[in-house]
Design a protein that fits this description.
The mean pLDDT is about 95. A three-stranded parallel beta sheet has the order 1-2-3, with helices on one face. The chain has one domain. The chain has four helices and three strands. Strand 2 (about 50-55), helix 3 and strand 3 (about 80) form a beta-alpha-beta unit. The chain has helices at about 10-20, 35-45, 65-75, 85-100; strands at about 25-30, 50-55, 80. The termini are far apart.
């Protein structure tokens, strides 16, 4: 975002959501801390009904975000799990998300 000259992610996202209201849009969290990711995800999810919140499958320390993904899905938040690189990550994330599909 910085390289593109954007300094206000929320304003940028709201502009996109005004222009595209009939298609799914993935908007990402910008944190490495799971508690802060949870707060960001809840805020982002309610910007519009077509929003999917992008959550990395791990943080930069390699800690799994599957518990966070489970909590968000259980709260009815649409999640787009990103950065999956192993079959185990795919299985773990899929198992959680299929419970709430």
């Amino acid at each position: 975002m910085g390289e593109a000259g954007l300094s206000d992610y929320a304003a940028f996202a709201h502009d996109i959501l005004k222009a595209i209201s009939d298609r799914p849009i993935s908007l990402e969290v910008f944190s490495d801390d799971f508690d802060y990711m949870r707060r960001q995800a809840k805020t982002i999810a309610y910007w519009a009904g077509n929003v999917y919140v992008k959550i990395p499958v791990t943080n930069t320390r390699g800690d799994s975000s599957v518990p966070l993904i489970r909590d968000l899905a259980a709260a009815g938040i649409k999640v787009n799990v990103t950065a999956m690189t192993t079959l185990r990550q795919v299985r773990d994330a899929s198992a959680v998300l299929l419970c709430f599909a």
